Amino acid sequence: MRKVAIVGAGLTKFVRRALETPKELSFEATKTALDSCGLSLDDIDCVAHGSAPDAFDGIHQKGEYLADGCGGWNKPTMRVYVGGATGVHAVVHGWHHVASGMFDTCLVVCEEKMSNAMPHAQGFFLTIFDAITERALHPNLLWIFALEMNRYMQRYGYTKEDMALAAVNNKKNGLMHPSSQFKDEITVEDVLNSETMAYPVSRLDVSPVSDGAAAVVLAAEPVARRLTDKPVWIEGVGWTLDTAYWATRDLYYPRYLDKAARMAYEMAGIREPDKQINIAEPYDPFDYKALHHMEGLQLSPRGKTVELLRDGHFARDGNLPMCPSGGLLGVGNPIAAAGTMKICELFWQLRGEAGERQVPGDPRLGVAQAWGDLMQVSSVVVTGI
Amino acid sequence: MGILEKITRNVDNRYWNPGVGAFPVKNRYTAGVAGQQFFERLKEDSKIFGTRCKTCETTYVPARLYCERCFERLEEKDWVDVGTEGVIHSFTVVHKTLEGEAKEKPDLIAAIQIADGILIHRLGELDDMEAYIGMKVAAQFKAKADRRGGINDIDYFKPL
Question: Which residue spans within chain A are E strands per DSSP?
Fold first, then answer.
């Protein structure tokens, strides 16, 4: 397999209601990514595209619909879709295209426009549940997170206040991100006082509904070295599926991620991820999920994560910054685009181009992760400079 | 494999009712950055606009924000009034409704080429036997009061 580098990145603003069509959002991210490394569409050999359920953009076969906005006209173009994990998985998918030797360059583009759904995208999630055993109980997506969060908190004796610390950490980081849809800092009290959606999940434990797109350009080693002095190498990739019977999982420990993370670390030659990784972008659609995933990523001992968070270990200037981008909680959550946004963040952070968000100490290794499908799949990408 | 019932006509198929717990959700779309302007010009000025890529000299109709071939951004200066006439690129005569019933009067639907773009629209003021590929047609706009800033602001295309 060939070495593959990220050589360019582009991101739209994340917003609640974009005028741009899904195609136009994709174009903006793709164009920015191409411009960032001085390439034109002629230099691109193939397109790896990612987007979550068709229902969100409200267009069936949206991979085909979006393709031209992703630079896919007259090129080998392939969509990948693993629900919420799509944004990181699309990068794994693009990595395959280049690492295999099939293509020298690959555009990876992810887009989501959640605001098309009226009154709320939540309605489209109803049909992900088992038609016979669960739907008759009128479930909604929050049930999954509420059951998981409750079990996680109970297992380690965590409180809602503990979980809110993660929301505060990520939102604070996000305020420095030019793509963020937020402008105000929040406190633990704000989270605790926000309305209960499905206990223990309160409104501010949850990431927002967003529109946006993100793109990265991948290149094989010789091409990457010609294009830039600072290629960001994809050192490891991993992905795993747990059972589709979601409630039978270890709700307090993300086993779906354990194996995916170990797979990526093994490929990257990382033996002690908690000591070797400098930046972590765990998937954080909910505050407790950031902590949950830090454990699954082997970056924090099980049940010790809140303690480390309180000690500042995961702060932007701590030993292992967690979601320096701001994550889904701090930047926004246009599903597939949010995962790729995490990869963009690693690219900028490792190149020292993250502006006021820059993590101190010249970080050299980073990991990004996303989670999705029927909440049982995870994809992991390790990058290094 | 068990078969619960045998349906020989689609019209006999029953609608699947998700029942209780259903959350009525619909999609509301935006016309987009280019689309917004395209439909404003259609509604206000009865004009059809395209955008022309200088690099590959393709004129997209309806106007688009970017050239899919060159990935150039198509800006204000790239907007061109392409007139309201076009040529039938292909057409079909639709005899059945979505439910499979015979239509009282068949619909004429055409792909109409304007500059390098294609608009799908209805044909009017001609009999289905008269339509032919290559026929020149012109947009028949609705009365201003009836326009809503959508593709139906053009009522149909008619022979020149």
Answer: 4-11, 46-50, 77-80, 105-113, 117-118, 196-198, 201-202, 211-220, 232-241, 279-281, 365-372, 377-384
Q: Please check whether residue A209 is in contact with residue A285, taking contact to mean a CB–CB distance below 8 angstroms.
A: no
Q: Nearest-5° angle of CA B16, CA A143, CA A336?
A: 80
A274 in contact with B at a CB cutoff of 8 Å? Answer: no
Facing residue for B30 by CB, picked from A21, A40, A126: A21
Radius of gyration of chain A (CA): 19
Cβ neighbours of A127 in B, within 8 Å: 18
Check: CB of residue A8 under 8 Å from CB of residue A216: yes
The pLDDT tens digits of the residues spanning A166-185 come to 999 999 999 999 999 999 99
User: Is A102:A78 a contact under the CB 8 Å cutoff?
Assistant: no
Q: Where are the domains of chain B?
A: 32-159
DSSP secondary structure string, A193-253?
HSPEEETTEEGGGB----EEEEEEEEEEHHHHHHH-S--EEEEEEEEEE--SSGGGS-TTS
Q: How many CB atoms lie within 10 A of CB B59?
A: 18
Cβ-based neighbours of A361, under 8 Å, separated by 6 or more: A278
The whole-angstrom distance between B81's CA and the closest CA on chain A is 22
Domains of chain A, CATH where assigned: 4-118+208-384 (3.40.47.10)
Q: Which residues of A touch B31 (CB under 8 A)?
A: 21
Sequence-distant (6+) residues with CB within 8 A of B149 are B31, B39, B40, B42, B43
Interface confidence (ipTM) of the complex? 0.91
Length reported for chain A: 385
**Residue closest to A330 by CA, chosen among A378, A284, A279, A282:** A284
- In sequence order, the 6+-apart residues with CB closer than 8 A to the CB of B81 are B47, B48, B49
- Closest chain A residue to the Cα of B28, Cα to Cα: A116
CB-nearest partner of A117 from B27, B65, B71 = B27
B74-117 per-position pLDDT tens digit: 999 999 999 999 999 999 999 999 888 999 999 999 999 999 99
